[in-house]
Amino acid sequence: MDNLTSALTRLYLPGGATQTNLLAQRAQGQTGVDVRLVADGRTRAIAIPFRPVAGGLEAQHWTQLCDVANALQAELGLPAPAVSISGDSGYGLWLSLATAVPEALAQRFAALLWTKYVPDLPPPGSALMDVPPCLHQSTGKWAAFINPGLGASFAEESGLEMPPPHAGQAALLDGLHSISDEQFRHALSLLQQAPVAEQSAPPPSPSSAPASAPADGLLLKDATLEDIIQFLHARNIEPSFRHLIRK
User: Fold this and answer.
1) CB 158 within 8 Å of CB 85
2) What DSSP letter does each residue of 88-155 carry, written as one string?
3) Among 146, 152, 188, 185, which residue's Cα sits nearest to residue 168?
4) pLDDT computed for residue 30 by the predictor
5) pLDDT of res. 170
6) What is the fold, at CATH topology level, of the domain defined by 3-13+38-203+215-233?
7) What single DSSP character describes residue 179?
8) pLDDT band at residue 230, thresholds of 50, 70 and 90?
9) Measuring CA to CA, which residue among 60, 35, 55, 31 is closest to residue 118?
10) Where are the domains of the chain?
11) Among the four 34, 101, 161, 208, which has the fewest Cβ within 10 Å?
12) DSSP-derived secondary structure letter, 29
């Protein structure tokens, strides 16, 4: 089992699941291979899609993802989530649970998150997202996990022209941790206690956010190329930016 398959299994597959061959096939670009994140009605993965907002500002869906991801850590006390691009037109936020929960409970948790932190838009629905990295059948582009500092650059086209290096994908997942049972219960309790008025209030304008540096682990909405290169070099990874910018 390579490092990428090991990381995906550790974080997202149900206990006892034997789908390592399927993960490897998808990572090699094979389509029509279904990796199941639900077993016996239970799941360890909560994946929330963020799609472009019709009539909204450019990269508004990226700003919304950052708001939710930062709130997960700063307000709910949860570990940092993974961030992905979908291969077509959006992002994904990936939460890992240490213990599988009923699929309905995972969906309720995601819906409560959305209601509290993205109150001005309807929930994205309960459809399961494909586990990256994989080739999107419709667009022919790659879904992949990304460094959050690069997220804004994928606002218009959320896919890679070439398959992402497995070592880089594994490195992005290596430092992530699963949400413990106690952390999940605490966060669920906080979300269920949120007053209706707070859930329906519009989110603060990005311009009103504090200018101070964010705490370690929080997502950055913007980062310089030098920041990203330093991040990768610290993990002994040579950067390879394969996203093609249209002229």
Assistant:
1) yes
2) SS-EEEEEEEEEEEEHHHHHHHHHHHHHHHSTTS----SPPPPPSSEE-TTT--EEEE--GGGGGGGS
3) 146
4) 81
5) 96
6) Alpha-Beta Plaits (3.30.70)
7) B
8) low
9) 60
10) 3-13+38-203+215-233
11) 208
12) T
